[in-house]
Amino acid sequence: MNTPLQKVETLRWEHDHLEMIDQRILPAEFKMIRFDSAAEVAAGIRDMVVRGAPAIGVAAAYGIALEARRLQGVNEQTFTCGLETAFKTLAESRPTAVNLFWALDRMKTLWQSQQQVDTHALAQCLLAEAQAIFNEDIQINRAIGAQGAALLKQGDRVLTHCNAGALATAGHGTALGVIRSACEAGKNITVIADETRPFLQGARLTAWEMVQEKIPVTLITDNMAGFMMKSGEVDAVIVGADRVAANGDVANKIGTYMLAVLAKQHDIPFYVACPLSTFDFSMATGDVIPIEERSRHEVTGFRDCQWAAAGVKVRNPAFDVTPAELITAIITEQGVLDSPDMERLQHILTGKT
Ligand code: MRU
Prior knowledge:
The protein is α/β, with parallel strands linked by helices. Helices cover 40% and strands 17% of the residues. The longest helix is centred in the middle third of the chain and has 31 residues, at 119-149.
């Protein structure tokens, strides 16, 4: 057994404020940004300072804690009104990852369960809940890692898309957590990181995480995945998820569906690694999952360098939906769900794996 990997602190609570790594400028620059209010955290989520479903959820929980702290000492009505606005602002930051809404619901449920009206005590108790969500996320990712590591064989070459690593969570990661746990268990895994156009989470973030930890990684552009699979250079695909519908359909970073189709064609196992907080039983199928459409400038170029013909029409859906039948298994903290469908999802959520 090797020593645990990964020391990246995506978010951290510092005495009276939140700090998050600015993921927009990685890997060129490593900078932590300070956040003091829910509005600042919502802007940070919208602008992709922090991204990745579980990390967005943890950030939103801290956003509520920050706002409660800012408001403590005001009268009850002002506190209630201010906190309601904070919930609304955070809920409007990004639409697809359900972990955001899951974390906000958990914070609201706790708030509403409190009999006390002392705003200092309320602020303290909301901060404790945000910290619990943070700590649980790391434990959950470790459990996902342990469940998933058993699926990987010594020497496997694993293709992953986007970044479902430490940077997308409170720590360890989901898809990259499985890879990390397999490496910690002594398996020599090599990673193939999809660049992940247009925001380049694979090239900038996944490659950075792997290089930091000396886990062998090869970067490819998204359109090389089919070639690599056909050439016999991929043993498994592992991705994260932003929302899993009741029938097992999975919304994840745009391009995931394409990979799942290719994996099926080449008889390569296609795994999704995610916490149970990513399951959304209110969505019967993936067709009703809201898909975020982002700025045209992400497609026409990158940052200040714009290369597409001026005036061209652009689409930029940030996520797609992979039908359940293309998924070999969903790896959760409670167990591995083979060939996911509605019945099997019900079982795992009720603890009957
Ligand atoms: O737009 P992003 O970077 O927030 O998209 C992230 C993804 O799609 C991840 O794969 C997903 O959130 C899972 S992260 C553990």
